[in-house]
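Re: folding output
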Amino acid sequence: MAAAVASRLAPPELHAKPGALAPSDLAMSRRRQIQAPISTTPQDVLQPDAHNEHDPHRLPDFDEMGLAAPPHPILYLPPLLSKLPEGYSHYHEPSGRFKPLSTETHLPDIDSVSLSLHKALHKFHPVTDEYAETPYEEAFNWSELELPENAEREWYAVSFRSKRKEGSDGGPLYEADKQAHEEAVRNGGLILYWYGIPHPKTGLNLATCIWQSRAHAIAAHSGPHHISAMRLAAASYERYELRRYRISKVKGERALSVEPYDGGDVGW
């Protein structure tokens, strides 16, 4: 059984075993360069590919069965057609099989390159059933995710490999997960959330989040619902491993590169 959503996003020192990770992310002050919001049109709402049966514009279920034994990997992409910032027109004609959500809060700011990544990630999926024990750079179809050639940017990613203890009580944890995840979405910057299926033999699982910036991830870690879920989950793991990555897109190329995080700011 995989670990709590909120705990997958936690700062390294709160979950990692001693010596496993770099110093606290919380030491960095939050920095966000706000860019002009990008208006979206109906054709911007893409369909998920055949690997993903879950509607990517709907929050995953956080009940006991939904996270303990999901029938297939979950791809969650925050909806593009949420309410835009105050003062911007939001009229659109819904189209496509999956209707976008209209959130209570307004859509967080997003730059044009992150919007291109968001579109490409509708095709995101693992390339092996052994993803829980495969290096992060090799576990997903990164080579198939292409962006405009003139785009240039970096994003911050977090992976969480885990194994739940047998018999651990997940009831309160699942509700805490839901609140923590919604808190992260409201905070802004969450581009992708993906959650796999526990391996049928080993019980190991993998989850990952991609953020517009490291600052966005740090801000989410500090939320009260996240901290609450983290505390509930602390006694639920038999094994856990948090790792951080830098996803890059350089001008002149269409492909992404994925490398272990080596310090400093990432994204905005």
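--- second protein (sequence, then structure) ---
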Amino acid sequence: MTTGVVVFTRDLRVHDHPALAAAIREHKSIVPLFVFDDAVARADFRPANRTAFMLESLADLDSSLQSRGATLIYRHGDWAEEVLALAEEVNASAIHLSEDVSGFSTRRITQLTERAKASEIRVQAHPGVMVISPGDVLPTGGDHFKVFTPYYRKWLALPWRTPIAAPKEILSVKRLDSLTIPKIEELSSGSLSPNRVNGGESIARRLFANWRESHLHEYESIHNDLPGNSTSHLAPYIHFGCLSPLELAASSLGRDGAEAWVRQLCWRDFYHQVLAARPDASWADFKHRGDHWIDDPAALQAWKEGRTGFPVVDAGMRQLLDEGFMHNRTRMIVASFLTKDLGIDWRHGARHFLEWLTDGDIANNNLNWQWTAGTGTDTNPNRIFNPTVQGQRFDPKGEYVRRYVKELASIPDGSLHTLGPLERAALGYPEPIVDHHEAIAEYRLRRA
């Protein structure tokens, strides 16, 4: 029996962790490792909310490992170089980690695999980031599905692996040098949302257990209800792997309301398999529509700050800044408004979301933006979300808007969606920055 290194990346948990389980099964002792990658540290885009959440999740993971006899080792530098250096230091025969689909992740794993060959160290990628790995769900004669519904049918029909219990004990190599976990200020200079959620598998498992018992049964009927705020709020925990998406799906199926919830997990897998096949689609149009985007910095800034004069749009944008989160229905509304009412390139919106969302995920975020902008996988690329109608339908009493748009807190009912100029002036709330109907007519001409 030998030593194995388990490299944690986007899988910060001990429950249902195939890479960790395989290492424990195959090796006499293991070394859990997390590397703070220089490539990430040097980037000009280091979102504070996600960084803080990751640090909290790492601390929680270390606590879970220590309770089982191991310690999470931290290193900082070139990711592949640091992983290989530790593997050589402990004379490891294998490096285990979870597979991922982004171009950045696959390049790192490929680079590590090539470097490890010279040291005769095996690099083994395991499932764990998705319910079903991209290569396991393929259409006839293609490398990925481009439309969700046929993907969903095949995804549901395939057998799933059985979730793996957390290990009770881990035999680990002792007395290794490790960095202390950095402070948020060392990794990000961005602003933190004052009401963001905290990270960690321990919190995540409690949240899921409580939500499953109290809200899963009504998910299909409530998931678009803006003021109810009864969606799972588990997205950041899924993004950082504090929760296994497979375990979530498997433990939900068969319960009332589970089908609609599991369908959302399938959407996540769908976008991951698109990105695995088309890594360029993270920032390039999946389907080029010949759009002529408008350069309007003032309108873009008003959108970012929640000062568009459309109450439900402004509520969503202010929720994002305040919580590092936005209701999924509102995400579609504000994305449609930016790309179709304002005519601004979806990439500006996607980047702003990634800057603030604690659950910011390159596959889900950017491909959802493309879906709304009409450059993605939507079979109806010219779909329009009327912001006033959406507010009236999903926030009929104005409760969601009043929660985030304080200027409108004194308006007692849904009339806040259709305020006139005098009322807006008295409340200090701006006039709409565009006329929706005129803007959509112009959008249709631009795309014609």
